[in-house]
């Protein structure tokens, strides 16, 4: 976050403030330095001045528009996609059914017992983020982060209503009038509408979308739906409309984490100082070069600063506030094109390549290096393992719970009986009949209260609990604790499932 708005001319004093820690040692480092600074009353923190980024056009801006349309379109439209799962089953393609404890994603259906896939997705997301950082720094933050996407949308609305940077600065400085009130009211009304649809789209993932939309419109939806929409409306409006770059700099932990994961070979937005310095106005460049004096390509126009959504000056070096969005590249390339100079004064580059170029060495590019290879292999391994698990996962299961009191019962004929609660799982959308058997105890006899072990019915897409009794005859004389294996088998499909427990005896 920048502490002061860049002006239309030059603002070199703000460069240090945009890099955390720079200037702090000067202010608090020595007693002599502290004594030289006059006493200041009031807050120790500079008041925030709203940043008004300048609209730019170019390659990276087009990429950001395309990704904005793709991500927001996916978010808003996916709940309305349909998927036929058969009679009695939800027809929404992507649905988180909290009442039944199911997650549906097209042909995939996950139960609470499949929580390992959720953990796998989180691990895969983290590894992918590490890989993106190792290749191109905070590229996630600049193009795909929800905060960036919604902030871009809010800024587009602001520009459409209030105008570009100069018009917005002028409107901020102008006294309140009918026109200013009308423009601000229209802007915030559209912001609130976008924020409301953000929350509204989110709750549609937890219920049938068309049905819930009708309930919301007629005020018949569950109260929790209205609470969720209100909460997300408020957070989206505040974060994307008012806090913006403060979220990326102060609330998000990723800027600090990624600093420990990057290296000198990661691509970042960098300024080619050896080409741009010394900065000279466009009018003086030709004269200085004709006289044999140095003159860089940078004309100190501050286009890169005014285009930055974080308000930083990339020419001061890589900074924590930079989200690597590339808008400063488009702004600088536009100016270079107008001056008839080659682009690339600001662009994606590596620190290692910058040092090599400054020393007159060859270009250095090491996208494939140990950390990127390791992250890539981990992503492929976790992703491949999850796909294999989904492709080979069982659609039947069981769990066994031994009676706690009593652990066993000795019958009059000397036999020993143990009781179990067995729960069978049927993940198919049709009824199935399972055969139950017990292994590990010789001459054991199995009984099912109210049923037969050879045909235990389980309704479609449901679980069924059975009371199971296991008998060990007197002559078997089992040990005090014998491991048992409960096995179910579906004769129609050949699918089996196992569960382990023990048989207790005197």
Name some characteristics of this structure.
506 residues; alpha+beta; Immunoglobulin-like; five-stranded antiparallel sheet; 14 strands; 42% helix; elongated; disordered N terminus
Describe the structure.
This protein is an alpha+beta fold and 506 residues long. The chain has a domain at 396-504: Immunoglobulin-like, CATH 2.60.40.10. The protein has helices spanning 24-28, 31-36, 59-77, 115-136, 139-143, 146-162, 165-173, 178-203, 209-217, 223-243, 245-251, 254-259, 273-276, 282-290, 303-307, 327-338, 351-358, 370-392; strands spanning 94-97, 102-105, 108-110, 268-271, 346-349, 396-402, 409-410, 416-426, 432-439, 445-448, 456-458, 462-472, 481-489, 496-504. A hairpin with a 6-residue loop joins strand 13 (481-489) and strand 14. Helix 8 (178-203) packs across helix 10. The longest helix has 26 residues, at 178-203. It starts with 23 loop residues before the first helix and ends with a strand. The relative contact order is 0.10. Mean pLDDT is 88; it is low at 1-41. InterPro entries: 4Fe4S_Fe-S-bd, 4Fe4S_Fe_S_CS, Cyt_c_oxidase_cbb3_FixG, Electron_Trans/Redox, FixG_C, Ig-like_fold.
């Amino acid at each position: 976050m920048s502490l002061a708005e860049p002006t239309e001319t030059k603002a070199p004093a703000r460069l240090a403030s945009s890099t955390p820690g720079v200037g702090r040692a000067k202010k608090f480092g020595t007693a002599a330095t502290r004594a030289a600074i006059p006493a200041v009353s009031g807050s120790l923190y500079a008041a925030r001045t709203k940043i008004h980024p300048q609209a730019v056009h170019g390659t990276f801006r087009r990429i950001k528009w395309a990704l904005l349309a793709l991500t927001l379109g996916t978010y808003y439209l996916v709940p309305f996609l349909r998927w036929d799962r058969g009679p009695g089953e939800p027809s929404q393609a992507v649905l988180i059914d909290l009442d039944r404890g199911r997650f549906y994603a097209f042909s995939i259906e996950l139960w609470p017992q499949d929580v390992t896939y959720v953990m796998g997705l989180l691990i895969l997301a983290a590894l992918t983020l590490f890989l993106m950082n190792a290749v191109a720094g905070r590229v996630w933050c600049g193009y795909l982060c929800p905060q960036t996407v919604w902030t871009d949308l809010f800024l587009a609305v602001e520009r459409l209503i209030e105008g570009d940077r100069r018009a917005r600065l002028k409107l901020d400085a102008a006294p309140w009038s009918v026109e200013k009130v009308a423009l601000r009211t229209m802007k915030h009304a559209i912001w609130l509408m976008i924020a409301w649809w953000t929350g509204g789209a989110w709750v549609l993932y937890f219920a049938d979308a068309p049905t819930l939309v009708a309930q919301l419109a007629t005020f018949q939806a569950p109260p929790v739906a209205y609470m969720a929409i209100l909460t997300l409306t408020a957070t989206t409006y505040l974060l994307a409309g008012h806090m913006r770059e403060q979220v990326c700099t102060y609330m998000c932990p990723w800027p600090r984490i990624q600093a420990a994961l990057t290296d000198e070979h990661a691509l970042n937005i960098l300024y080619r100082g050896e080409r741009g310095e010394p900065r000279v106005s466009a009018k003086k460049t030709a004269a200085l070069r004709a006289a044999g004096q140095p003159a860089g390509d940078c004309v100190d126009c501050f286009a890169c600063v005014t285009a930055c959504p974080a308000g930083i000056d990339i020419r001061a070096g890589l900074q924590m506030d930079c989200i690597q969005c590339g808008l400063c590249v488009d702004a600088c390339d536009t100016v270079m094109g107008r001056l008839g100079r080659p682009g690339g004064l600001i662009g994606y580059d590596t620190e290692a390549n910058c040092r090599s170029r400054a020393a007159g060495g060859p270009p250095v590019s090491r996208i494939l290096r140990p950390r990127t290879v390791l992250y890539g292999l981990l992503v492929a391994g976790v992703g491949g393992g999850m796909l294999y698990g989904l492709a080979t996962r069982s659609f039947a299961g069981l769990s066994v719970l031994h009676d706690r009191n009593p652990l066993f019962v000795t019958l009059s004929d000397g036999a020993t009986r143990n009781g179990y609660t067995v729960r069978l799982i049927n993940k198919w959308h049709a009824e199935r009949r399972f055969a139950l058997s017990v292994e590990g105890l010789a001459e054991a006899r199995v009984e099912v209260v109210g049923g037969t072990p050879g045909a235990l019915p389980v309704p479609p897409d449901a679980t069924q609990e059975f009371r199971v009794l296991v008998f060990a005859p007197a002559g078997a004389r089992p040990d005090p604790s014998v491991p048992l294996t409960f096995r179910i088998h579906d004769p129609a499909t050949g699918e089996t499932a196992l569960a382990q427990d023990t048989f207790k005896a005197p």
